[in-house]
Design brief:
Distance between the termini: 35 Å
CATH architecture of the largest domain: 3-Layer(aba) Sandwich
Strand content: 15-25%
Structural class: alpha/beta
CATH topology of the largest domain: Rossmann fold
Number of domains: 2
Shape: globular
Bound molecules: adenosine-5'-triphosphate
CATH superfamily of the largest domain: P-loop containing nucleotide triphosphate hydrolases
Strand order of the largest sheet: 6-7-8-3-9-10
Number of helices: 11
Oligomer: single chain
CATH class of the largest domain: Alpha Beta
Length: 272
C-alpha cells in the first residue's frame, strides 16, 4: 500500500546547531491511527509541524502524497494533511461556526452540492448544528475544539493531525471524538494523535511512535508497546490501567474494558 507520508533521516532544530529531532524515519499508511508519545519537550508538536509543512527539515526528507514536500507549498500540503492544533483559537479565523467549517471545502475544486454535503456531514458528526451562527470564540473550549475538528474533517484530507485534541473533554465529548477517529479510519484516512493520555491512546490508536532525546525509539503496534515495560519507560509514559489489570490477571493485553470482560468471560468458561 502506498504511504500517505514518509519521513526519511529527518533532522530538525529551531537552532540547527541543537537538533530537537534526529534521524527520524517512518511512513504512515491509509487507515492507520498513529499515536506520537513522549515526555514534555520530546519534540511531538515539532514533529507534527514537520508533517504539515509548517516546519521544514534541516536534513532528510518528507514525502507527502508521493511528492517531495520540500517542493510543495504549505497550502498544497494542507490539501493532504489537516491539523487540529493544541489551541484551536490559533486556527479559527471566521466570524461564525458555519463560515469557519465552510472555508476549507470552498478552497477545493468541488461542486457547491459536494461542498454543502461535506459541511452538513461535518456539522452532524461534531454536534455543532445548534451553534452554526455563533462566533466560534464565544463557544466553550471543548466546542471550539470540535469546530476545528469539523473544519478539518469537512476537507477530507488523507491524513489528520490531532495535537492533544482529547485534552479537557468530558466523557461524552471524548467518546464523540473517539467515534470520529474510528469513522475517519474506516473511510481509509489516517490520523496522527499527539497525546499524553495513554487511556485514549490504548482505546483509539493502532500504532505508537515514541520519542526520547530527539530520536524515534519506539515504532510498535499499540498492544505490543503497552506490554513492553522497557518501551513505556523509554518514552516516560505509564501503562494504561486496563493493561496493568489484564497483565495482573494473566490475561492477554486488553486495551479497552470490553476486551478485558471478553477475556475474563472466556476464562470463566474454561476457554482461556
Ligand atoms: N518555536 C520554538 N522555538 C524554539 N524552541 C522551541 C519552539 N517550539 C518548541 N521548542 C523547543 O523544542 C523542544 C520540543 O518541543 P515540542 O513542543 O515539540 O515538544 P512536545 O513533545 O510537543 O512537548 P509537550 O508535550 O510539552 O507539548 C522543546 O525543547 C521546546 O522548548
Amino acid at each position: 500500500m502506498t504511504p500517505i507520508l514518509t519521513l526519511d533521516a529527518v533532522r530538525f532544530g529551531y537552532d540547527p546547531e541543537k537538533p530537537v529531532l534526529r534521524d527520524i524515519a517512518f511512513s504512515i499508511h491509509p487507515g492507520e491511527v498513529v499515536a506520537v508519545v513522549g515526555r514534555n519537550g520530546a519534540g511531538k508538536s515539532t514533529m507534527l509541524r514537520l508533517l504539515n509543512g509548517l516546519l521544514r527539515p534541516d536534513a532528510g526528507s518528507v514525502r507527502t502524497a508521493g511528492k517531495d514536500a520540500a517542493k510543495l507549498k504549505v497550502s498544497e500540503i494542507a490539501a493532504h494533511v489537516g491539523t487540529v492544533f493544541q489551541a484551536p483559537e490559533q486556527q479559527i479565523f471566521n466570524a461564525t461556526v458555519q463560515t469557519e467549517i465552510a472555508f476549507g471545502p470552498a478552497q477545493q475544486c468541488l461542486s457547491s452540492e459536494e461542498q454543502q454535503a461535506r459541511i452538513d456531514d461535518a456539522v452532524a458528526r461534531t454536534g455543532l448544528g445548534e451553534v452554526l451562527e455563533m462566533h466560534p470564540l464565544d463557544l466553550d473550549a471543548a466546542m471550539r475544539r470540535f469546530v476545528a475538528v469539523a473544519s478539518v474533517i469537512a476537507c477530507r484530507p488523507d491524513l489528520m493531525l490531532f495535537d492533544e485534541a482529547q485534552r479537557g473533554l468530558d466523557a461524552t465529548r471524548r467518546s464523540l471524538l473517539g467515534g470520529i477517529i474510528a469513522e475517519e479510519k474506516a473511510a481509509g484516512r489516517a490520523i496522527v494523535l499527539v497525546c499524553h493520555d495513554m487511556d485514549f491512546v490504548a482505546a483509539h490508536a493502532d500504532r505508537v511512535l515514541g520519542l526520547a532525546e530527539g530520536r524515534l525509539v519506539v515504532d510498535a503496534p499499540v498492544a505490543e508497546f503497552f506490554s513492553d515495560a522497557a518501551a513505556t519507560r523509554a518514552v516516560s509514559v505509564e501503562q494504561p490501567g486496563i493493561v496493568t489489570l489484564s497483565q495482573a490477571l494473566d490475561l492477554p493485553v486488553a486495551l479497552q474494558a470490553p476486551d478485558l470482560v471478553l477475556a475474563l468471560r472466556k476464562r470463566l468458561k474454561g476457554g482461556a
